[in-house]
Amino acid sequence: MSALTAAAIQTAPIFGDVSGNVARALARVPADCRLAVLPELCTTGYQFASRDEAIALAEPVPAGPACQAFRDFAARRDTTLVAGLAELARDADGRERVFNSAALFRPDGTWAVYRKVHLFLDEKDLFAPGDRGFPVFPACGTTVGLMICFDWLFPEAARTLALAGATLLCHPANLVLPHCPEAMITRCLENRVFAVTANRVGVEHRAREELRFIGLSQIVSPRGERLACCDGVAEGAAVALIDPDATDKQITPRNDVLADRRPQAYRL
Amino acid sequence: MSALTAAAIQTAPIFGDVSGNVARALARVPADCRLAVLPELCTTGYQFASRDEAIALAEPVPAGPACQAFRDFAARRDTTLVAGLAELARDADGRERVFNSAALFRPDGTWAVYRKVHLFLDEKDLFAPGDRGFPVFPACGTTVGLMICFDWLFPEAARTLALAGATLLCHPANLVLPHCPEAMITRCLENRVFAVTANRVGVEHRAREELRFIGLSQIVSPRGERLACCDGVAEGAAVALIDPDATDKQITPRNDVLADRRPQAYRL
Description:
The structure is a homodimer of 268-residue chains.
Chain A: E1 4-10, H1 18-27, E2 35-37, H2 51-57, H3 65-77, E3 80-90, E4 96-105, E5 111-115, H4 123-126, E6 136-139, E7 142-146, H5 155-163, E8 168-172, H6 180-191, E9 194-198, E10 201-204, E11 211-214, E12 218-220, E13 226-229, E14 236-242, E15 250-252, E16 255-256
Helix pairs in contact in A: 1-3, 5-6
């Protein structure tokens, strides 16, 4: 693969305005980029008042209306698109479940989905926890791993993706705690991967306490360099030229961050 | 347990001057501290020219002369002391082995040792890799975990210690890469532990390339706050009052950083 231009799209969704949120987010994707990552729950907004409200605003992947708009855009613009959205699914007994998901849409019309594993605070009342672990997907000529927001806190998330071969982490987020932008530098260093964190900005104050989202969307290299970033308040895009397959796992000529692991020593 | 005063002691050892290095390091331990952490290989210096030189300067734990000085000091000053040193041991066949170790000495004369698991660069030519995993030890009224320098890069190190019950990581170091001070903030956040990183300063240029050690010894809280730190060039001490047993694992009222782990999702 050759280098590609990647973008973290930073938006401020209006709660419940799915078609408007999708249109405004896609309008911010730079013309020349081959990978665009949109925030967590970028179609609906974040603070659902109830599980019923989440079900009402969620959609099936890839048949839902936002997904269709993303698929069309990916094909029309020859861009791989990753977007966070509320996914409506049915379990084996036909009951409705809602996942906090990230869907990936390729230019050829194919798609993949990750369901958030580590739920934050009151998300535990709204969403089912991800039931498919941390799969990786071929996309834009490399291997992509998806993680969502609070997954940043658990080193096992990025580690599992890197061990499965991901060279590039796409990370939709709705961050309210301040630590993630720095922690993602650690995640990139310890796994020698790129990470594109697309966070939202703005404030939501609906059913629960006021939430202020911290922005600071960024693209970080396997050497822990912040290649591009947004500010903490405005919508925008962080854009960088990256080459995931030009990097290796050698943090020094004699230290491979994955091969030097010693799983025997990690047993309790 | 009640709160205790902890110190990260930052020194610039003179290569090979074991008795002088020990005396100068101990002279920097504040009178009132109950835990002092000294740098990696603080008795000998870092850059051994050969494995034979490492063997010649290494000592058995706890019978060696530096260990005896540390034990005496711990008892006399009622302080728990953690120090990095080259440990001489024999394997089952009587062959000499050298470990890059951290020894812990309690005021009551008892001791414990950790042998560095993740060896950095040319350490692979000098030392045997740690053969005892990441054990934790009761000390200063809590549960202490030991890790050494480059172990910072592997999230499994601090994670294993935290899962085994460590509330306080003692981390002797000889850092040359720039990333560890920030990464240790991530380690403390993701495990909700304290960390005392004692690094050295100064330059060594012996057998191999010149090494410039970055200092910046620090004490970090479970909330990722840098409670105390040294500069990048001078010997000194970073001192803070900490209470490891007053903290819990709740990064939010509904999120426990250990209980929220989902090991099933981390399978490849």
